Amino acid sequence: MELLLSKLNSYLPESSISKIRQAYTFASTAHRNQSRLSGEPYIEHPVQTALLLADLKLDVSTVMAGLLHDVMEDCQVPFTTLEAAFGSEVAKLVDGVTKLAKLDSEAIGQSDKTSAHIANPTRAENLQKMLISMAEDVRVVLIKLADRLHNMNTLKYLPEDRQQAIARETLDIYSPLAHRLGMGDIKWKLEDLSFHYINPERYKTISKLLASKRKERELYIATITSLLNDSLNAHEIESDISGRPKHIYSIHQKMNRYASQGKDFSEIYDLFAVRVLVKEVPECYRALGVVHSLWQYIPNQFDDYIANPKENMYQSLHTSVRGQDGTPIEIQIRTFKMHELAEYGVAAHWDYKENGLLDQKLDSKLTWMRQILEWQTNSSGAEEFVETVKSDIFGDQVFVYTPKGEIKELPLGSTPVDFAYRVHTDLGHRSVAAKANGKLVPFNYILQNGDTIEVLTTDLARGPSIDWLNPNLGYTRTASAREKIRQWFRKEKRGIHIERGKELLTKELRKLGIPMDEKEAIKLLKLRDFDELLAKIGSGETNLPEISLQLAAAQEKTSKSDPEAKAQFNILGAGDLVTTLSSCCNPQPEDSIIGCISDEGTILVHSEKCSVLAKNEDPKKIITLRWGTSENLQPVRLEITAWDRVGLLRDITSSISSERVNISSVITNQQGEGKTIIESTVFITGINQLSKLFGNIESIKGIIAVKRKT
Ligand code: MN
Q1: Which long-range contacts (CB under 8 A, 24 or more apart) does 404-413 make?
Q2: Each residue of 408-427: pLDDT tens digit?
Q3: Which of 1, 160, 191, 258 could form a disulfide with 249 if both were Cys (CB 3.0 to 4.6 A apart)?
Q4: Residue 428 Cα, ligand 1 centroid: separation in angstroms?
Q5: What is 207-345's CATH number, 3.30.460.10, 3.90.950.10, 3.40.50.40, 3.40.50.300?
């Protein structure tokens, strides 16, 4: 406690010290009969937590809440009591930490707690809860991180299964969170502590490696440092130079990365780094010049994170040079301010004089939040983080805001319609348009993390559109939205269902070029009569593409196969890239083919003999391809009627390509009055893909109609 007070004295006003004392007295009274598994009195834990918060130079309320963080959960102190004693700000922080604690299977180090096994929440739920707290007040998460760090420091007192579970959770959730908040110092501490329990063998191997090279390294670093120091002084650059071993977990990750790339791991080079801190940004670059004039730099090892900060705001220059005897060493150069940000992240942004608000208050808090929410889509920089989090925690969810700033979580691929139904059933039924970040978007827009979604409504009881249920049109992703839409249609009269069903089915079959045979359909689908089918379609009970697929399949069986359909091909060698057959040479399956990579990252397939290609293309963009015959593709001719506009053709072809469908021969015919008809042949795997393609094309701006030409 004395240590805590002396730390606080260095940056907090005198008046806050008595508040801290009160919080301490309150907490130690509340925890008086409790002890940790280590045997220490329980109060040791909240005091250590508060110390870590003081190291981050956080405001008085946060440090008080750190001292009090376990009294609600472990001592059943009610919110109102805390509020009366310390005010609502502190009480809310403690309440926030308590809510998080309920979710993670905490109960760490406490002997008198029953180990009730409540259903373990998933990591995704935990993380989601964290993000929501962070939106409310990021300080809650900072307290939680300090709490977790102290618990990790004392993990050895716990039974082994708890150690494993907690270490795993720390590595999966807490250290990524610290990373995203830019708190490098806490991040690596959490990582190394977790790694020690998760992979003790490897941990020992790497620490031995560090120890065995210690003398050698110290000598080497001392030489480098003193040379560099002299040289920087000679250039009148004031600096602070330090050599340090890298963190064990990051060495482990680097070794894995190297192993997977078949590269050698050179010990000294990869275990140690020299850090140079200077005052101003221009001095960083001058210092870099000095470094590069002293030693030979290693190509491709230079990163300018000052000009291009990492997404967690990390800034620094990184370079590797060959030192005295040719041994490589990594050198990081940054300003003192950048260093502080790299170590303390969001906490370094704190303006404690402003009573615990972030410098730019609410707005910057939201910026942080958005940035955090974007983390899984942003793969640059934090490889290790993305690896852990991308698929298994966040991969299948998207977080968006309501106009009031409330956060809504939806499955990845959700649309504004899903969002509207998630907010309120009535909002879904009345929605007529949607805006994402203030701009109108179509109802099949895919929600992006951090979007603010506004749904525009009508007072008329118009109800949802039956199209929202058609999976190929992409208006809904969530089962709950679809169920609510179906409920709405179920309330209608059967006559309306039949009428609508007839209209929908006729249109769909005409579009796909399938003749309608009522008797055949009744037999095939085992129905009483045709009206039953129509009613099912018109009420949304049956999915229209599914029906047309079945009808088409039945029809294909009876009709003779089209000789043209024998032209089966697909393209091998293009990986996942979208391929399009070039119209200049229109390559045929008997031609040798090559691919040309476009600026958009798609591949245009040319005949090897193509004269246009020979003249124009950069040889670096050419790859070899060959025909494959693994898929049974059939050519289908489309007729698309549209209002002509700039970019129309590009939108159509890219919409087709995005379904991984190859296009050949596109012919446009101007029709006058601004109308145009586009005829195109596409190669599809079946009627289902065709139906999806129609959905895609129909949603393009300006399209009047699209149908299959028979
Ligand atoms: Mn705690």
Answers
A1: 405/135, 405/366, 405/452, 407/131, 407/132, 407/135, 408/453, 409/128, 410/447, 410/477, 410/478, 411/477, 411/478, 413/446, 413/477
A2: 778 778 999 999 998 888 89
A3: 191
A4: 42
A5: 3.30.460.10
